[in-house]
Every structure is written in C-alpha cells, then in structure tokens.
Amino acid sequence: MILSKEALLLSGCLLVSLPLIADETDLARDEQEKRHQESLEKGSWWQSTHRSVSETVDDWSRNIDAFLSGKQHVLSNESYMRLRFGPILSDDGADGFFDFNARLKLPNTKDRLRFVIESDGDHLTSDNEVTETSRDSSVVNSVANSNVSAAVRYIKKSWGADFDGGVLLAFPLNPFLRTRFSQGQRYGQWRWYQQEEAFAYYTEGTGLRYKLGYAHQLGDDFQYGSRFGTTWFAQDDEIYYREDFFLKQSLNEKSKLLYQLSFLQADGDDTDGNSFLYFVDYSRHLYKNWLIGHVKPQMTHESDNDYQADFSLTLSLEVLFGNPYLGTK
C-alpha cells in the first residue's frame, strides 16, 4: 500500500512537471530560432556591406535634403544607388564594363530636386550604342576610365520637365546643362510616351535629342513595344537614328526575359555607319530584391564589317543600394 502511494505521488509529480519541461523546451527552441534569425540578418560580409552602403546612401540623401531645404525633419526616402558590372565575351577575347549611377531624392524640397551621379557622364546618347557604354579591356580599366558626372536636377511636374545643371568630374571640370520635356499617356493596356531634350557641354558641344515609344501589356506575363530615338550633335553635324522592337516575358516572380531587335543609322563624315543587332537578356533576382544576375547573348551586324555576324556574351551583376532595399524579402 505504501508503494502504491509512492507510485501515485511520483506519477503525480511527473504529470505536473511535464508541462514545465515542455515549456522550457519550447522556450529553448524559440531562443534558438531567434538566434538563428539574428545570424541570418547579420549575414555574411557581403550582406553586411550591402546594409552599410545602403545606410550611407540614405544618410547622404537625408543630409543633402536637410541642407537644401533647411528642414531637419526628414520624410521617407527612396534614394538609391545602382552598380552593374561584368565581363563581355566575344571572338576577340574578354572585355569588361562597369556602370554606376545614383539618384538622391530630396522630399523636403517638395520633391522638386534630385542629386544625380553617373559614371558615364560624357555619354550623350544611346542612339549609336551597339554594346555597353563603358566597355573596356577589363572591369578594372572600365572603373578607372569612368567619366563621373554630378548634377542637381530640378523637376517641374506641371510642365513635364526636368533641368540638370552639373559638371563632369574630370580635370579640368566640364560644366553642362540638360533640359528635358516629357509627355505620355496610358489607355488601358496601352502606353505611349515621348521626350524632347537639349544639352550643352563645355567640351562635348551642344545637341538635340528626341524619343518616342509605345508599349502594350498582354496579360500578366508579356509586354511588347517599340522605341524610336534620334540625336543631333551640332559640333560635328552628325545625326544618329535608332529603333528598338522588344518583347518582355515574366517567367516567375524572380526571372524575366527581354527579346530585342534594334536598327541603327548614322549620317555624318565621322560616324560608324549603319548596323543592326538582336539579343536576349535573361535576368534573375539572386538575393532578395537587390542582387540581380544577367545573361545576355547578342549578335551584331555592322556595315563596317560587311554585316558579318559578331557574337558576344555579356554576364553581369546588378546591385541596388538604398533605403528601399533594406529589410526586404
């Protein structure tokens, strides 16, 4: 009888202690998951570097915004910086390119000012471009030979206009002015736009540029359209024409395809002649929404080469920094 009472007492203690043991187990599991999550958030060196650079971009934008507006209270900021770089493989060997640009938005100026930084500030048009603008013998040389520009952009939304005033950060400093007027409209799944631009560079000269385009959305996964552009350089009396036909396909939330056919023409004594090209650009988000990989095979046919096919393969990484890319999934 005594043994039975002891057995009953022991069983009762075990029954009472089981919930406590389960609670301790759950707490230990929760604590382990919390530590694991903190470890993921801290991440490796490249994740911490991304966070640090993004916070720096946000701080720059807030400080410039406060300086120009005279207001210390800073609104939500969507400033960003974008890097894109990689090798370009062709029959002639391996080259490289590096592109960099930043848009620092200043909301306290009633969203009328931007601070714009670009690595290809001396590149005035894409209407004569058959490859990456900053293509060089390597990515390192492309970085070293970048012609960085810095400009303040004033936006007049009621006019559909923006005005840039800035300098090319080379020696000697090369000031420039740019003015753009944009128009466009959306009708259901159709959209059209046009843009007129005038530019004046101290050393590069003056010129005019015009763009016209349309796009049509087909369901959730497809969009097709066309773009036409022309640029006139007054200094050399050269005119460039370009027409692009494209089809965009969304494969899933992370992957997209761009198919494009382009025709380029030029009028002038020192121009590169006529050409056409076609390529497929496959892009995929490799990590969250700020690390994107691109694979782009391209065929180019230029009149200077009797329109013989010239194949190239561009492999690139695109990295986005800024407050919109912090803490995203």
From TrEMBL:
It comes from Marinomonas pollencensis. Residues 1-22 form the signal peptide. It comes from the Bacteria. Keywords: Signal. The lineage of its organism: Bacteria, Pseudomonadati, Pseudomonadota, Gammaproteobacteria, Oceanospirillales. The keyword Signal applies. This is Uncharacterized protein.
